Amino acid sequence: MASSRRGSGSSGGRDAPSVMGGHREGNTNTPKSPSPQSKKSFASFVKKVKMGKKIEKALKDKGHSSASQEHEDDSKTPEPGDDSEPHVCTGNLSVDFTELCRRNNMAVIPPVVQRPHRPVTPPPEPASKAEKGKGKQQQQQPEPDPEPEGEGEPVEPPPKTYTTKDKYEYFKPTVQVEMDNPDKWDTVTEVFVKGWKIDETMMNVFKQCWLTMDRLHTINLWDTGLTCDTVEILSGFLPQCANLKTVILDGNPVPEENWYSLIGDESQIQTLSLRYNQITDKGAEQIGKALGTTQKANTKLLSLNLNGNRITDVGATAIAGGLRMNRNLLSLSLEHNQIGDLGAKKFGEVLSRFPLTHEEVVERRKLLSEKGAPDRTKSPPPSRRADSKDRPGSVRSSSQIDKKRDKSSKKKDTKGKDEKDDKKGKKEDKTAGKKASVVAETAGKTAAKGKDKKGGKDKKGAVQQEAEPETPELANPLLEQVENINHELWVPGNRVLISLNLKKNLIGSEGMKELLKAIQYQTTFSKLSSGSGTGLMRICLNKNKVSMDNDILEKINQMMLTKDPFYKPPPSSPENESQVAG
Question: Where do Acidic residues bias regions lie (predicted)?
Answer without folding.
Answer: 144-154
